[in-house]
Amino acid sequence: MNSLSRWGRAIPLSKAWRHFAPTPWLKHLDALAPEGGGALYLLEAAKAIGEGTTLGFLDQQARHNRAMNQEWAIKAHVLKRLQSVELLGYGFALPRNSGDSPALIPADVWGGEAKWHKDEVKGAGLQFVSVRLEAKHSGLSITPPPPLPAPKVGRPGAKTAINSAFNALLADGRLDSAQPKARAYPLIRSWLAVHHPEWAEINDKTLQRHTAPLFNALKTNKT
Questions:
Q1: Cβ proximity of 193 and 73 under 8 Å
Q2: What is the rounded CA–CA span in Å between residue 105 and residue 77?
Q3: CA gap 3, 67 in Å, rounded
Q4: H/E stretch holding 135
Q5: pLDDT tens for residues 65-83?
Q6: Each residue of 20-56: b (16+ CB within 10 Å) or e?
């Protein structure tokens, strides 16, 4: 089968992140915010403000933030599978010429920037548009392996995993030293669920112990 045929039967990037999401993760996301639920969130938040119910607004905002964190974790999981060539991406390389065929996107490109809503990806000095994804092998399971047992507090390796999550989220602009530290914990757990699933259920006490010096260093660097 040629690349055009494979591209034609593949799934647009804007929809593929849901198609290849682990089923339990997608169910959790849809429970927080049904597909297309952004407008509903805005309506509910506006209603709460109009009724003067600050608590209702904060509840809607917290629910929306949890949904965004879950969506981010799913997309990070799909990117990881693309980088490990469990999933394949096809697209048209830029600059695009008349008569071009879609090409297989190299795995290292997925370490760059994916514009999900535009079906585009850019990385490793290359850029592709009209991007579509497919499983490497037909019938490839999209369900991740069973999670490892939850770690015990203080188990060696927690500090390294948390530091990696903290630095990755900071580089992505998702952490801020001005925000309450506890607000970062769900973000860190979502990142760990993708990259270090054995630490995905780590408790707040352990997160506080290992992130406190990181936040303090961040504040010091900003002064």
A1: yes
A2: 18
A3: 35
A4: strand 126-135
A5: 777 888 888 999 999 999 9
A6: bbbeebbebbeebbeeebeeebeebbeebeeeeeeee
CA proximity to 142, closest of 217, 191, 74, 93: 74
Distance CA 188, CA 72 (A): 11
Return the number of other C-beta atoms located less than 10 Å from residue 176's C-beta: 13
Peptide bond into 22 cis (omega under 30): no
Evaluate if pTM is beyond 0.85.
no
Report how far Cα 94 is from the mean position of its chain's Cα atoms. Answer: 25
Token pair, residue 39, equals 């407008």
The domain locations on the chain are 3-135, 158-222
The conformation of residue 200, written as its DSSP 8-state character, comes to T
Percentages of the chain per state (helix, strand, coil), in multiples of 5: 55, 15, 30
25: region left, alpha or beta (phi > 0 left; psi from -120 to 50 alpha): alpha
Q: Which amino acid is at 84?
A: S
pLDDT at 65: 74
Question: Which residues neighbour 10 within 8 Å (Cβ) at sequence distance 6 or greater?
Answer: 16, 88, 90, 132, 133, 134
Q: Residue ranges of the chain with pLDDT lower than 50? A: 36-43, 45, 54-57, 138-156
